[in-house]
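Q: Hi! First time doing this. I have a protein sequence and I read that you can turn it into a structure. Is that right? Here it is:
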Amino acid sequence: MTTRDNLKAHLDKLEAAFDPAWESRKLELWKRALECEPIEGGFLPRSDRAEPVIDDWPRVRVNAALHDPEAMLLQQLREVYRGVRARSWRIPGIRSNFGTGILSSVFGAPVFLMGENLDTLPTTRSLSAQQITHLLSRGAPELTAGFGPAVFEYAQFFREQFAPYRRIRENVWFVHPDLQGPIDVAELLWGSDLFYALSDEPDKVAALLEIITETYIRFMTRWLKENPSREGGKYLTHWGLLAKGQVFLRNDSLMNLSRATYERFVRPYDARILAQFGGGGVHFCGKADHVASAMTESGGVTMLQVAQPELNDMGKIIAATLGRKVPLCCKLVESMRGFDLSRAFIRE
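A: Yes, that's right. Below is the predicted 3D structure, encoded as structure tokens:
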């Protein structure tokens, strides 16, 4: 069997596995939950099936998928198929899966591939101080370097393969590429010296963030033109979650910053992106409870996804999110017990 025949056989199998009624009901319950409405039986539409063992779908390693759109499509659809078989509450979605260094690679940062044995997404190496200065003098780049072209080409290939499959087209969402957030891209480009530069060269950092934000908006504008959002652009999915808006920002670097630094060097650029695309979610790893209220007080943030709640003062996080009717997504930890989690809490 050829690779293309193998892909078709698996697409046929996925098409047959979809239960449109379940997917429709699940989506409507998600929408109600995002409006902070009570949901019968709990917040999410829990599966009535055991998680299946998937032994009839290929497992594709990351590095192989980076060089072959057919391999990446099979890789991305494996978890979709598992979720469909399990009647999972998660929204089925796929993305052009090139890791955290997509936008930094567009700026010319060299790609760093992980070892085959690690089976982990690539990233980029930081630039030298001289290269950062040159980047600033050059201005915003075209979207033709690094992973930029492949992100769009792979998505087009995915759409073409889905064309004969009505259930797949109607139920599998396109997740926007992992463009991180402006401050994370700045750290990828500048390296850890960025944290010194925030104090020593603030104007230079601000200039870099301006260019990153401009490029992010151009990238996402093209992405949404070629891969229009479902539901009229009112919702997006990331990690199987549903959120309002069209972008999901990552802010892993902000755990190292004070609230004042966050308000100067992170929030304004995030806010521009969120406003441009009708709002969206924000994710962070690590401890960032000291800036949670600053994230949600100005609007635009439609969901906060906290990867490590055990490292945070969850009372502060809950006040900043559920206290303002902003959905909170995280695993339940002991420090959250005693709080009212009956509205807009998404337990991972």
